[in-house]
Amino acid sequence: MKVRLCVCYFVKAEKLTPGGLPVRTVLTSYYKSKHFKCRAHDSFNDFTSPDQAILCKDSNQSMYCQLLSGLVHRHQVLRIGAVFASALLRAISFLEHNWVHLVNDIRSGQVDPMITDPECRSSMSMILSSPNPCLADEIEEICSRPSWKGILYHLWPRTKYIEAVVTGSMAQYVPALDYYSEGSCLWCTMYASSECYFGVNLEPLCDPADVVFTLMPNMCYFEFIPLGENGKWLMDVGEEEEVPSDKLVDLVHVRRGCYYELVVTTFAGLYRYRIGDVLQVTGFHNQAPQFRFICRRNVVLSIDNDKTNEEDLHKSITAAKKLLEPYGALLVEYTSYADTSSVPGHYVLYWEILHHASVIKDTPIPLDAKVLQECCIAVEEELDYVYRRCRAYDKSIGPLEIRVVEPGTFEALMDLFIGQGGSLNQYKTPRCIKSNAALVLLNSHVKASFFSPRDPTWIP
């Protein structure tokens, strides 16, 4: 039995160093290698997309062809996958804007003229070997519905699970994926980076919030910088600082409940390389420690003495966005910025909000200003003691601001970073914006701005 996998994988055009050496992302390197191109047939890992669509350098043409392939084989698909949850949501958005063209291709049996890549056209012409008006009518009926809740399940009814990274900053996308998949199981199977493959999730059926990884010692030599326990950092090592060897802990000496920054020595030649990920030991599988991904050390907001990391930011926004639910609204994406252009400086959150009723029509329904102000308060109440002291007592930080941006703003942000050399396949929305060009783009799409109407609670 074939287990067809509808994928959203992409390559990035490589660059050359001044010495002529090719530079490319690890996934692009794999997709272009003989290990991928000449792989043996695997009936449990059979992609709906032809390799030519995955290897197409134009991400829009690649996306179009991969979605078209998936729709043609919709009754055979048992799994849907992308590297990161963000890429899968980008595919859903692309489908929302292009399903009419895709349906026309299936109905006519001909590829849309927008597909100009010769290899993509050739491979897709073989898939669209003849007109299929019945299939086109099925897809048109589904995509024309007033709500896209459960759209993945309706388009691919035999899907057993969705596979993508949903930990760390990707946890933000879990509610949106639940909405579009109507609660289908989300699998987060691996922990890896461009530097090395680290470990696996031994319980892929677990809730995304409970995902832990078991590191595999044959991948590299693991060491750890102790950071603390119970959420309190005991050691503050700068990102560029060299860590004394006597401060490093190896894999067998980590302790349950403690936080560590990951350091690796790899077969490829990296020596004591700081990955920048903060992990917490949650338990053990036999004698092997298991880790929960917490955050990236280099994502932090700071105005005064405050230091807000990615985990704190995510927790606070997770609490605040619940206030949107009674209004049928969904926070689909966010980022932040420490605005020091005024005194005192303040935190700025950029929110893209989607109302469930506007998933198809793309007609945003405005929320009452009081609701967004309450969201500002909820975020501040969840931030740590130091931030709340600076806000309520020291007055060294101004009221938190939420800037609501137009639908599609974060797709434009993704396009900006990809245009600057980023990879669509490995793109992650930065949780703290430091690029002037990105700030200009975000601010140009702001629809409304809301400030926290009061100080957060602070008890000396």
TrEMBL record:
What protein name applies here?
A: Indole-3-acetic acid-amido synthetase GH3.9
Annotated InterPro entries: GH3, GH3_C, GH3_M
| Limits of the GH3 middle domain | 213-296
Cite the entry's keywords alphabetically: Ligase
Query: What family is this protein classified in?
Result: Belongs to the IAA-amido conjugating enzyme family.
Q: Where is the GH3 C-terminal domain?
A: 311-436
Single GO cellular component term: cytoplasm
Q: Which residues form a coiled coil?
A: none
GO MF term (any one): acid-amino acid ligase activity
